[in-house]
Amino acid sequence: MNAGPATGRPSTKERIVTAGAELFRRQGYTGTGLKQIVAAADAPFGSVYHFFPGGKEQLGAEVVRTSGAAYGRLFTAAMEAAPDPVTGVRDFFAGAARTLVETGYADACPIATLALEVASTNEPLRQATAEVFTGWITLGTAAFAAAGIGERPARELTIALLAALEGAFVLARALRSTEPLEAAGESVAARASALLGSPDAGRG
After folding, report:
1. Residues contacting residue 35 through CB under 8 Å, at least 6 positions apart
2. What CA dihedral angle connects 24, 25, 26 and 30, to 10 degrees?
3. What are phi and psi of 109, to 5 degrees?
4. CA 158 to chain centre
5. Residue pLDDT, tens place only, 105-134
6. Does the structure show a pLDDT above 90 at 75?
7. What does the alpha-carbon distance between residue 36 and residue 33 come to, in Å, rounded to a whole number?
8. Which of 64, 75, 172, 190 is the least crowded, having the fewest Cβ atoms under 10 Å away?
9. Helix residue ranges per DSSP H, the chain
């Protein structure tokens, strides 16, 4: 059922997870059906239950964890490529804004989309989203602490970054404007700069 290694094509399971992530991100969890997912994945319907015996709920949890890891890598890449954490924060928000524009404001964060829907109705999925958010907080805390910010303020900065990012996604999609992401990015960058005790480098 999986693609052979010589084909270069993602496996059936990978295609299902990727399709699920895109559809959940665009339509939400409750607004997306398994038939839509397998059609988008170009996979037989039975393959969903082959890989995910728990059905849509198990697939949703896998999408959350896979997408969460991918978004974590984006943050790490932005921070490692930047000359300093303040620039890294700005670059991270700028990248999120570019993605929204390139996708017609359809692709934001799938974790937040699911969390809003399932936090009070589906405990396994709530736990999966909580696991991802906790991982992001740990990742960001370590990155900012390594730059010279104390662990407690580094954790608080990371939580502020995530809250600003997710809130900005909501406003940006509704307004069809990147202004919320730009404003949120500058706010978090200014806080990072203040914690580092350095001038706000990079501002014109």
Report:
1. 45
2. 30
3. -95, 115
4. 14
5. 887 777 887 888 887 888 889 999 999 999
6. yes
7. 5
8. 190
9. 12-27, 34-41, 46-51, 56-81, 85-102, 110-118, 123-146, 151-175, 179-196
Whole-number Å distance between alpha carbons of 154 and 89 = 13
Q: What are the structure tokens assigned to 5, written together?
A: 């290694």
User: How many whole angstroms separate alpha carbon 53 and alpha carbon 48?
Assistant: 8
Question: What gap in Å lies between CA 199 and CA 70, rounded to an integer?
Answer: 32
CA–CA separation, 132 and 139 (whole Å)? 10
- DSSP class of 105: T
Q: What is the DSSP letter of 13?
A: H
Tell me which residue has tokens 């198990």: 58
Tell me which amino acid residue 11 is: S
Q: Give per-residue pLDDT as tens, 79-105.
A: 999 999 999 999 999 999 999 999 888
Long-range CB pairs of 4-13, under 8 A, 24+ apart, other chains included: 12/41, 12/43, 12/47, 12/51, 13/47, 13/51
The pLDDT mean for the chain works out to 89
In this predicted structure, what is the pLDDT of residue 106?
80
pTM, two decimal places: 0.84
Q: Residue 106 gets which letter from DSSP?
A: -
